[in-house]
Amino acid sequence: MTKYRAVALFYFVLMGICFLGLFVLVTPQGALAGNEVLIIELEGSINPGTAMYVERGLKEADKRDAALSIIRIDTPGGLGSSMRTIIKAILNSPVPVVVYVGPKGAGAASAGVMITVAGHIAAMAPNTNIGAAHPVTAGGKDIDKTMSEKVVNDMASYGRGIAENKGRNGEWVEKAIRESVSITAEEAVENNVVDLVAKDIDELLRVLDGREVDLPEGKITLKTADLKKTYFRPGFRDRVLKTISDPNIAYILMMIGLAGLYFELSHPGAIFPGVIGAISLILAFFSFQTLLVNYAGLLLILLAIIFFIAEVKVTSYGVLSIGGLISMTIGSIMLFEDVGVSLKLMLPTILLIGGFFVVVASLAFRAYSAKPKSGSEGLLGETGVVKELIDPEGLIFVHGEYWRARAKIKLEPGDDVEVEGIEGLILKVKKATNREF
Predict the structure, then answer these.
(1) Which of 352, 364, 369, 370 is CA-nearest to residue 262?
(2) Which fold would CATH assign to domain 376-431?
(3) Candidate list 88, 141, 150, 344, residue with the active-site label
(4) Which of 81, 110, 287, 327 is catalytic?
(5) Interval 205-237: pLDDT, tens
Protein backbone atom coordinates (compact mmCIF):
# COMPACT_ATOMS: atom_id res chain seq x y z
CA MET A 1 0.00 0.00 0.00
CA THR A 2 2.90 2.32 0.84
CA LYS A 3 4.29 1.77 -2.66
CA TYR A 4 1.03 2.93 -4.30
CA ARG A 5 0.88 5.99 -2.04
CA ALA A 6 4.40 6.94 -3.09
CA VAL A 7 3.48 6.57 -6.76
CA ALA A 8 0.33 8.67 -6.27
CA LEU A 9 2.31 11.36 -4.42
CA PHE A 10 4.89 11.46 -7.21
CA TYR A 11 2.09 11.76 -9.79
CA PHE A 12 0.44 14.71 -8.01
CA VAL A 13 3.79 16.47 -7.51
CA LEU A 14 4.55 16.02 -11.21
CA MET A 15 1.15 17.38 -12.20
CA GLY A 16 1.65 20.35 -9.90
CA ILE A 17 4.99 21.15 -11.52
CA CYS A 18 3.40 20.92 -14.99
CA PHE A 19 0.56 23.31 -14.04
CA LEU A 20 3.04 25.70 -12.43
CA GLY A 21 5.15 25.65 -15.61
CA LEU A 22 2.04 26.32 -17.70
CA PHE A 23 1.10 29.22 -15.41
CA VAL A 24 4.60 30.71 -15.76
CA LEU A 25 4.51 30.36 -19.54
CA VAL A 26 1.18 32.09 -19.99
CA THR A 27 1.70 34.77 -17.34
CA PRO A 28 2.73 38.09 -18.95
CA GLN A 29 6.30 39.26 -18.37
CA GLY A 30 5.04 42.61 -17.21
CA ALA A 31 2.20 44.66 -18.62
CA LEU A 32 3.08 47.53 -20.90
CA ALA A 33 0.54 50.28 -20.78
CA GLY A 34 1.71 52.63 -23.53
CA ASN A 35 4.36 54.21 -21.32
CA GLU A 36 7.14 51.68 -21.89
CA VAL A 37 9.60 50.85 -24.63
CA LEU A 38 10.27 47.20 -25.51
CA ILE A 39 13.96 46.60 -26.30
CA ILE A 40 14.80 43.61 -28.52
CA GLU A 41 18.49 42.74 -28.64
CA LEU A 42 19.59 41.22 -31.95
CA GLU A 43 23.19 40.01 -31.75
CA GLY A 44 25.12 37.55 -33.89
CA SER A 45 24.16 36.07 -37.23
CA ILE A 46 20.72 36.55 -38.80
CA ASN A 47 19.09 33.12 -39.00
CA PRO A 48 15.61 31.61 -38.60
CA GLY A 49 16.06 31.52 -34.82
CA THR A 50 16.83 35.23 -34.49
CA ALA A 51 14.13 36.09 -37.05
CA MET A 52 11.48 34.26 -35.00
CA TYR A 53 12.73 35.99 -31.85
CA VAL A 54 12.47 39.49 -33.37
CA GLU A 55 9.10 38.70 -34.94
CA ARG A 56 7.73 37.54 -31.58
CA GLY A 57 9.16 40.61 -29.88
CA LEU A 58 7.39 43.00 -32.25
CA LYS A 59 4.12 41.10 -31.88
CA GLU A 60 4.52 41.26 -28.10
CA ALA A 61 5.03 45.02 -28.26
CA ASP A 62 1.79 45.38 -30.22
CA LYS A 63 -0.07 43.00 -27.90
CA ARG A 64 0.97 45.00 -24.82
CA ASP A 65 0.39 48.39 -26.39
CA ALA A 66 4.02 49.50 -26.16
CA ALA A 67 4.78 53.11 -27.10
CA LEU A 68 7.96 52.13 -28.95
CA SER A 69 10.10 49.12 -29.95
CA ILE A 70 13.88 49.34 -30.21
CA ILE A 71 15.85 46.65 -32.02
CA ARG A 72 19.43 46.99 -30.81
CA ILE A 73 21.47 45.31 -33.52
CA ASP A 74 25.05 44.08 -33.77
CA THR A 75 25.43 41.57 -36.60
CA PRO A 76 27.85 40.39 -39.30
CA GLY A 77 24.83 39.47 -41.46
CA GLY A 78 23.16 36.15 -42.18
CA LEU A 79 20.48 34.43 -44.24
CA GLY A 80 18.57 36.49 -46.79
CA SER A 81 15.29 34.70 -46.07
CA SER A 82 15.56 35.46 -42.34
CA MET A 83 16.45 39.09 -43.09
CA ARG A 84 13.30 39.46 -45.16
CA THR A 85 11.21 37.95 -42.34
CA ILE A 86 12.53 40.60 -39.92
CA ILE A 87 12.07 43.45 -42.40
CA LYS A 88 8.49 42.37 -43.15
CA ALA A 89 7.74 42.36 -39.41
CA ILE A 90 9.22 45.87 -39.02
CA LEU A 91 7.39 47.36 -42.02
CA ASN A 92 4.04 45.96 -40.85
CA SER A 93 4.44 46.77 -37.17
CA PRO A 94 1.73 49.08 -35.77
CA VAL A 95 4.23 50.07 -33.06
CA PRO A 96 7.05 52.45 -34.12
CA VAL A 97 10.32 50.54 -34.54
CA VAL A 98 13.75 52.08 -34.00
CA VAL A 99 16.72 50.06 -35.27
CA TYR A 100 19.75 51.07 -33.23
CA VAL A 101 23.27 49.86 -34.12
CA GLY A 102 24.99 49.65 -30.76
CA PRO A 103 26.71 49.67 -28.36
CA LYS A 104 30.05 51.27 -29.27
CA GLY A 105 32.12 48.92 -31.39
CA ALA A 106 29.07 47.19 -32.90
CA GLY A 107 28.29 46.95 -36.59
CA ALA A 108 25.50 46.27 -39.05
CA ALA A 109 26.95 44.38 -41.99
CA SER A 110 25.35 42.55 -44.89
CA ALA A 111 21.74 41.70 -43.93
CA GLY A 112 22.10 44.13 -41.00
CA VAL A 113 22.24 47.06 -43.45
CA MET A 114 18.77 46.32 -44.85
CA ILE A 115 17.30 45.71 -41.40
CA THR A 116 18.70 49.04 -40.16
CA VAL A 117 17.37 51.16 -43.03
CA ALA A 118 13.97 49.42 -42.75
CA GLY A 119 13.33 50.90 -39.30
CA HIS A 120 10.89 53.76 -38.86
CA ILE A 121 13.92 55.45 -37.32
CA ALA A 122 17.51 54.30 -37.89
CA ALA A 123 20.16 55.23 -35.34
CA MET A 124 23.76 54.31 -34.54
CA ALA A 125 26.09 54.61 -31.57
CA PRO A 126 29.45 56.37 -31.97
CA ASN A 127 32.33 54.15 -33.16
CA THR A 128 30.03 51.78 -35.02
CA ASN A 129 29.85 51.03 -38.74
CA ILE A 130 27.36 49.96 -41.38
CA GLY A 131 27.86 48.43 -44.83
CA ALA A 132 29.61 45.57 -46.67
CA ALA A 133 26.34 44.06 -47.84
CA HIS A 134 27.53 42.07 -50.86
CA PRO A 135 25.72 38.67 -50.83
CA VAL A 136 27.86 35.64 -49.91
CA THR A 137 27.18 32.02 -48.94
CA ALA A 138 26.83 30.90 -45.33
CA GLY A 139 30.45 29.77 -45.40
CA GLY A 140 31.59 33.30 -46.30
CA LYS A 141 32.45 32.53 -49.92
CA ASP A 142 31.35 34.61 -52.89
CA ILE A 143 28.33 33.23 -54.72
CA ASP A 144 29.14 31.33 -57.89
CA LYS A 145 29.49 33.59 -60.88
CA THR A 146 26.45 32.22 -62.76
CA MET A 147 24.16 33.13 -59.86
CA SER A 148 25.96 36.23 -58.62
CA GLU A 149 24.44 38.77 -60.99
CA LYS A 150 20.90 37.55 -60.35
CA VAL A 151 21.26 37.53 -56.55
CA VAL A 152 23.07 40.90 -56.40
CA ASN A 153 20.51 42.61 -58.65
CA ASP A 154 17.64 41.23 -56.59
CA MET A 155 19.21 42.32 -53.29
CA ALA A 156 20.19 45.75 -54.65
CA SER A 157 16.67 46.55 -55.85
CA TYR A 158 15.20 45.24 -52.59
CA GLY A 159 17.53 47.31 -50.40
CA ARG A 160 17.20 50.45 -52.49
CA GLY A 161 13.41 50.19 -52.48
CA ILE A 162 13.28 49.89 -48.69
CA ALA A 163 15.68 52.82 -48.15
CA GLU A 164 13.84 55.14 -50.54
CA ASN A 165 10.49 54.20 -49.00
CA LYS A 166 11.89 55.43 -45.67
CA GLY A 167 13.35 58.59 -47.22
CA ARG A 168 16.92 57.38 -46.96
CA ASN A 169 19.85 57.18 -49.37
CA GLY A 170 18.90 54.25 -51.60
CA GLU A 171 21.86 54.90 -53.90
CA TRP A 172 24.33 54.32 -51.07
CA VAL A 173 22.50 51.14 -49.96
CA GLU A 174 22.78 49.78 -53.50
CA LYS A 175 26.48 50.65 -53.52
CA ALA A 176 26.96 48.81 -50.22
CA ILE A 177 25.43 45.72 -51.83
CA ARG A 178 27.25 45.91 -55.16
CA GLU A 179 30.64 47.21 -53.96
CA SER A 180 30.69 46.21 -50.25
CA VAL A 181 31.37 49.78 -49.07
CA SER A 182 31.18 50.52 -45.36
CA ILE A 183 30.94 53.80 -43.42
CA THR A 184 31.04 55.06 -39.83
CA ALA A 185 28.06 56.28 -37.81
CA GLU A 186 28.87 59.95 -38.45
CA GLU A 187 29.30 59.33 -42.19
CA ALA A 188 26.02 57.43 -42.23
CA VAL A 189 24.18 60.48 -40.86
CA GLU A 190 25.92 62.78 -43.39
CA ASN A 191 24.95 60.44 -46.25
CA ASN A 192 21.33 60.14 -45.05
CA VAL A 193 21.68 56.39 -44.43
CA VAL A 194 20.58 56.68 -40.79
CA ASP A 195 18.78 59.46 -38.93
CA LEU A 196 20.93 60.14 -35.91
CA VAL A 197 23.79 59.14 -33.59
CA ALA A 198 23.17 58.44 -29.88
CA LYS A 199 25.73 57.14 -27.40
CA ASP A 200 23.24 54.85 -25.64
CA ILE A 201 19.55 54.00 -25.40
CA ASP A 202 18.87 56.65 -22.74
CA GLU A 203 20.21 59.39 -25.01
CA LEU A 204 18.36 57.84 -27.94
CA LEU A 205 15.03 58.12 -26.09
CA ARG A 206 15.73 61.76 -25.20
CA VAL A 207 16.61 62.68 -28.81
CA LEU A 208 13.56 60.89 -30.24
CA ASP A 209 11.07 62.81 -28.09
CA GLY A 210 8.82 64.89 -30.33
CA ARG A 211 9.85 63.27 -33.63
CA GLU A 212 7.24 62.25 -36.18
CA VAL A 213 7.16 58.78 -37.76
CA ASP A 214 5.04 57.26 -40.49
CA LEU A 215 3.06 54.16 -39.51
CA PRO A 216 0.60 52.09 -41.59
CA GLU A 217 -2.25 54.05 -39.90
CA GLY A 218 -0.62 57.44 -40.48
CA LYS A 219 1.83 59.84 -38.83
CA ILE A 220 2.31 59.93 -35.06
CA THR A 221 4.48 62.04 -32.76
CA LEU A 222 6.76 60.13 -30.39
CA LYS A 223 6.72 60.87 -26.68
CA THR A 224 9.77 59.03 -25.41
CA ALA A 225 11.26 61.21 -22.68
CA ASP A 226 9.70 59.32 -19.77
CA LEU A 227 9.32 55.84 -21.23
CA LYS A 228 10.25 52.92 -19.00
CA LYS A 229 12.70 50.44 -20.56
CA THR A 230 11.62 46.79 -20.72
CA TYR A 231 13.83 44.13 -22.32
CA PHE A 232 12.36 41.30 -24.36
CA ARG A 233 14.61 38.40 -23.42
CA PRO A 234 15.15 35.35 -25.66
CA GLY A 235 13.75 32.19 -24.12
CA PHE A 236 15.39 28.76 -24.01
CA ARG A 237 13.63 27.83 -27.26
CA ASP A 238 15.01 30.96 -28.96
CA ARG A 239 18.57 30.18 -27.87
CA VAL A 240 18.36 26.55 -28.98
CA LEU A 241 16.78 27.45 -32.32
CA LYS A 242 19.35 30.18 -32.94
CA THR A 243 22.14 27.65 -32.46
CA ILE A 244 20.77 24.75 -34.49
CA SER A 245 19.46 26.98 -37.29
CA ASP A 246 23.04 27.47 -38.40
CA PRO A 247 23.34 25.32 -41.58
CA ASN A 248 26.75 24.04 -40.46
CA ILE A 249 25.35 22.89 -37.10
CA ALA A 250 22.33 21.28 -38.80
CA TYR A 251 24.68 19.43 -41.17
CA ILE A 252 26.82 18.09 -38.32
CA LEU A 253 23.73 17.01 -36.37
CA MET A 254 22.41 15.09 -39.37
CA MET A 255 25.73 13.28 -39.88
CA ILE A 256 26.05 12.41 -36.18
CA GLY A 257 22.45 11.19 -36.18
CA LEU A 258 22.92 8.90 -39.19
CA ALA A 259 26.20 7.53 -37.83
CA GLY A 260 24.78 6.91 -34.34
CA LEU A 261 21.65 5.13 -35.56
CA TYR A 262 23.61 2.96 -37.98
CA PHE A 263 26.06 1.96 -35.22
CA GLU A 264 23.14 1.01 -32.96
CA LEU A 265 21.45 -1.05 -35.68
CA SER A 266 24.65 -2.88 -36.59
CA HIS A 267 25.63 -3.43 -32.92
CA PRO A 268 22.32 -3.82 -31.00
CA GLY A 269 22.56 -3.11 -27.30
CA ALA A 270 25.20 -0.37 -27.47
CA ILE A 271 22.36 2.08 -26.52
CA PHE A 272 24.48 5.24 -26.15
CA PRO A 273 25.17 5.74 -29.91
CA GLY A 274 21.49 5.10 -30.65
CA VAL A 275 20.31 7.66 -28.08
CA ILE A 276 22.77 10.33 -29.28
CA GLY A 277 21.96 9.52 -32.90
CA ALA A 278 18.19 9.78 -32.41
CA ILE A 279 18.45 13.10 -30.53
CA SER A 280 20.84 14.54 -33.14
CA LEU A 281 18.63 13.45 -36.04
CA ILE A 282 15.49 14.96 -34.45
CA LEU A 283 17.33 18.26 -33.88
CA ALA A 284 18.60 18.15 -37.48
CA PHE A 285 15.08 17.66 -38.87
CA PHE A 286 13.87 20.49 -36.63
CA SER A 287 16.58 22.68 -38.18
CA PHE A 288 15.51 21.60 -41.67
CA GLN A 289 12.05 23.01 -40.96
CA THR A 290 13.59 26.48 -40.64
CA LEU A 291 16.03 26.11 -43.54
CA LEU A 292 15.34 25.64 -47.24
CA VAL A 293 16.40 22.00 -47.68
CA ASN A 294 17.04 20.47 -51.10
CA TYR A 295 15.73 16.92 -50.73
CA ALA A 296 17.77 15.75 -53.72
CA GLY A 297 20.87 16.58 -51.65
CA LEU A 298 19.47 14.69 -48.67
CA LEU A 299 18.73 11.63 -50.84
CA LEU A 300 22.28 11.71 -52.24
CA ILE A 301 23.67 11.60 -48.69
CA LEU A 302 21.44 8.60 -47.86
CA LEU A 303 22.53 6.93 -51.11
CA ALA A 304 26.18 7.44 -50.07
CA ILE A 305 25.52 5.56 -46.83
CA ILE A 306 23.97 2.66 -48.79
CA PHE A 307 27.11 2.56 -50.98
CA PHE A 308 29.36 2.42 -47.90
CA ILE A 309 27.37 -0.48 -46.43
CA ALA A 310 27.33 -2.34 -49.76
CA GLU A 311 31.10 -2.00 -50.12
CA VAL A 312 31.77 -4.68 -47.47
CA LYS A 313 29.40 -7.18 -49.05
CA VAL A 314 30.10 -6.60 -52.74
CA THR A 315 33.48 -7.02 -54.45
CA SER A 316 33.69 -3.61 -56.11
CA TYR A 317 37.44 -2.97 -55.59
CA GLY A 318 36.66 0.41 -53.96
CA VAL A 319 34.25 1.65 -56.63
CA LEU A 320 31.32 1.78 -54.17
CA SER A 321 33.36 3.67 -51.58
CA ILE A 322 34.47 6.22 -54.17
CA GLY A 323 30.87 6.52 -55.38
CA GLY A 324 29.75 7.00 -51.77
CA LEU A 325 32.25 9.83 -51.20
CA ILE A 326 31.22 11.53 -54.46
CA SER A 327 27.51 11.15 -53.62
CA MET A 328 28.02 12.50 -50.09
CA THR A 329 30.06 15.46 -51.36
CA ILE A 330 27.51 16.46 -54.01
CA GLY A 331 24.64 15.91 -51.56
CA SER A 332 26.34 18.09 -48.95
CA ILE A 333 26.86 20.91 -51.48
CA MET A 334 23.22 20.70 -52.62
CA LEU A 335 21.69 20.19 -49.15
CA PHE A 336 20.51 23.75 -48.52
CA GLU A 337 18.84 25.94 -51.15
CA ASP A 338 19.94 29.48 -50.25
CA VAL A 339 23.09 28.76 -48.25
CA GLY A 340 26.05 26.42 -48.39
CA VAL A 341 27.83 24.39 -45.74
CA SER A 342 31.36 25.67 -45.13
CA LEU A 343 33.92 23.67 -47.17
CA LYS A 344 36.31 23.76 -44.21
CA LEU A 345 33.69 21.86 -42.24
CA MET A 346 32.26 19.75 -45.07
CA LEU A 347 35.40 18.00 -46.36
CA PRO A 348 36.72 16.68 -43.00
CA THR A 349 33.17 15.64 -42.05
CA ILE A 350 32.71 13.68 -45.30
CA LEU A 351 36.04 11.87 -44.81
CA LEU A 352 35.36 11.09 -41.14
CA ILE A 353 31.77 9.94 -41.61
CA GLY A 354 32.63 7.97 -44.78
CA GLY A 355 35.48 6.22 -42.99
CA PHE A 356 33.25 5.59 -39.98
CA PHE A 357 30.57 3.87 -42.05
CA VAL A 358 33.10 1.70 -43.90
CA VAL A 359 34.84 0.62 -40.66
CA VAL A 360 31.62 -0.09 -38.76
CA ALA A 361 30.08 -1.95 -41.70
CA SER A 362 33.27 -4.03 -42.07
CA LEU A 363 33.27 -4.93 -38.38
CA ALA A 364 29.60 -5.87 -38.50
CA PHE A 365 30.08 -8.05 -41.60
CA ARG A 366 33.09 -9.82 -40.11
CA ALA A 367 31.22 -10.51 -36.90
CA TYR A 368 28.27 -11.86 -38.91
CA SER A 369 30.38 -14.12 -41.15
CA ALA A 370 32.97 -15.21 -38.58
CA LYS A 371 33.08 -18.79 -37.41
CA PRO A 372 31.49 -19.35 -33.96
CA LYS A 373 34.07 -19.38 -31.17
CA SER A 374 31.98 -21.18 -28.52
CA GLY A 375 29.32 -23.90 -28.27
CA SER A 376 29.13 -27.04 -30.36
CA GLU A 377 29.22 -25.04 -33.62
CA GLY A 378 32.65 -23.77 -32.64
CA LEU A 379 34.04 -27.33 -32.82
CA LEU A 380 33.57 -27.72 -36.59
CA GLY A 381 36.97 -28.02 -38.26
CA GLU A 382 38.82 -28.34 -34.94
CA THR A 383 41.40 -31.12 -34.44
CA GLY A 384 41.68 -33.34 -31.38
CA VAL A 385 43.22 -36.58 -30.07
CA VAL A 386 41.58 -39.97 -29.62
CA LYS A 387 41.60 -40.97 -25.94
CA GLU A 388 39.53 -44.15 -26.18
CA LEU A 389 39.26 -46.59 -29.10
CA ILE A 390 36.70 -45.46 -31.68
CA ASP A 391 34.98 -48.46 -33.29
CA PRO A 392 32.65 -46.92 -34.36
CA GLU A 393 32.29 -44.73 -31.22
CA GLY A 394 34.77 -43.68 -28.61
CA LEU A 395 36.17 -40.76 -26.65
CA ILE A 396 38.24 -37.83 -27.94
CA PHE A 397 39.78 -34.71 -26.43
CA VAL A 398 39.13 -31.56 -28.44
CA HIS A 399 38.90 -27.83 -27.68
CA GLY A 400 39.90 -28.49 -24.05
CA GLU A 401 37.02 -30.93 -23.44
CA TYR A 402 36.23 -34.66 -23.68
CA TRP A 403 33.56 -35.58 -26.25
CA ARG A 404 31.91 -38.78 -27.50
CA ALA A 405 32.81 -39.22 -31.15
CA ARG A 406 31.86 -41.47 -34.08
CA ALA A 407 33.97 -42.30 -37.14
CA LYS A 408 33.57 -44.39 -40.33
CA ILE A 409 36.89 -46.10 -39.71
CA LYS A 410 38.56 -47.57 -36.68
CA LEU A 411 40.73 -45.07 -34.81
CA GLU A 412 43.29 -45.90 -32.12
CA PRO A 413 44.09 -43.89 -28.98
CA GLY A 414 46.61 -41.17 -29.86
CA ASP A 415 45.35 -40.70 -33.43
CA ASP A 416 44.70 -37.13 -34.55
CA VAL A 417 41.13 -36.46 -35.66
CA GLU A 418 39.21 -33.57 -37.23
CA VAL A 419 35.62 -32.69 -36.36
CA GLU A 420 33.45 -32.69 -39.50
CA GLY A 421 29.95 -32.73 -38.06
CA ILE A 422 27.71 -32.89 -34.99
CA GLU A 423 24.82 -35.20 -34.21
CA GLY A 424 23.25 -34.23 -30.92
CA LEU A 425 26.04 -34.62 -28.35
CA ILE A 426 28.16 -36.90 -30.52
CA LEU A 427 30.84 -35.53 -32.85
CA LYS A 428 31.42 -36.96 -36.32
CA VAL A 429 35.19 -37.15 -36.90
CA LYS A 430 37.68 -38.29 -39.48
CA LYS A 431 41.38 -38.98 -39.31
CA ALA A 432 43.31 -35.69 -39.46
CA THR A 433 46.10 -35.09 -41.90
CA ASN A 434 48.91 -32.49 -41.86
CA ARG A 435 48.19 -31.37 -38.30
CA GLU A 436 50.15 -28.24 -37.42
CA PHE A 437 51.83 -27.80 -34.05
Answers:
(1) 364
(2) OB fold (Dihydrolipoamide Acetyltransferase, E2P) (2.40.50)
(3) 150
(4) 110
(5) 999 999 999 887 888 999 998 899 999 988 777
